[in-house]
Amino acid sequence: MPPLGKAQGWMLAAVALGIPLSAWGALYPTNTWLQVGPVAVALPFAWRALRRAPVSDVSAGCLTVFVLLHLFAARWSYSFVPYDTWLGGALGSERNMFDRLVHFAFGALAMAPMVEAGVRYWGLSPRMAVVFAITFVFAVGGLYEIFEWSLTLALAPEDAGAYNGEQGDMFDAQKDMALAGLGAALVAPLVRGAKWWKGTAE
């Protein structure tokens, strides 16, 4: 296996540092470990995967930004990130919208690595790789919402409400998926046109 590049090594180090920082002083420790734990388990597998199936620094960077954003939000269990307080109440929204931002970011940031993987490793044309990536975003978004629902059957009501972050919105799951899809759709033309990966052809 080829050695991991220096830039991607620093990306993994940033994620490794973000794990304990996210858990330190967490608002809802049980929920935080549900969100941080999978990242900790996946980290060594990510190191091996990046060596066995290398991707560009752009794609690795997109994944890193999303994971760090997730770890940051997990510190406050998403629904309680005090961004409006930091901004002096400038936004004035009654609902904490940080979870919406992360869902949008998932759709936008997943496009580059999934399109690159589709072209480099799965023999897809750039056009079909974009279609696959958008489908991937919706599929993962749907599976995650099902996972959140299943947690409500196991967690205490207060913990379940804090983890799921629906904040009284009965259409929270649909809006989350729609924002992820919007993020993917907005980035799709940029990703298809910017062929930073090697050996691609229409």
State the gist of this model.
With 202 residues, this protein is mostly helical. Helices cover 72% and strands 0% of the residues.
Spans of 5+ residues with little confidence (pLDDT < 50)? none
Helical content, roughly?
A: over 70%
Number of H- or I-type helical stretches: 8
Estimate the strand proportion. under 5%
**Structural class of the helix and strand makeup?**
mainly alpha
Sequence of secondary-structure elements: HHHHHHHH
Q: Give the overall average pLDDT.
A: 84
Count of individual domains: 1
- Could you describe the largest sheet, including whether it forms a barrel? none
Q: Tell me, briefly, the overall form.
A: globular
Total number of beta strands: 0
* Gyration radius over CA: 18 Å
End-to-end Cα distance: 29 Å
Report on this structure.
There is one protein chain. The protein is an all-alpha fold. It has one domain (6-193). The chain has helices at 6-23, 29-52, 57-74, 83-86, 98-121, 126-152, 157-164, 172-193. α1 runs parallel beside α3 (57-74) and α5 crosses α6 (126-152). It is globular and about 45 Å long.
